[in-house]
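Hi support team,

I submitted a single chain yesterday and got back a structure, but I'm not sure I'm reading the token output correctly. Could someone confirm the output below corresponds to the sequence I sent? I've pasted both exactly as they appear in my results page.

Thanks,
R.
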Amino acid sequence: MKDMPRISRVEFEILSLLRAKEMYGLELVKESSMLKRGTVYVTLERMTDKGYVNSREAERAPHESGLPRRIYNISGLGQRALAAAQAAAAAYSSWEAIAQ
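Hi R., thanks for writing in. Yes, this is the structure output for that exact sequence:
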């Protein structure tokens, strides 16, 4: 069980959203009712370190100023971690229904 990937609710939400398409951090916040602007980038950085997401710098138009935007997408490991979390949630739900 040591190799079983573990993800938090916030990580689960981010991976679920990134499964559909790559997004900027603020796009993730807009698409979700649970993600907050103040924590999404910290979580994305941690998920990048874990290998669950990849990021790249977005191309900028010559007239744009400021910090470059980062675009995030789900990695192969992130897809496997999400699938494992979904399977665990489904198994728990099934067990909980039987136990009642």
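A quick pointer for reading it: Residues 20 and 74 are 9 Å apart (CA to CA). Let us know if anything else looks off.

Best,
Support desk
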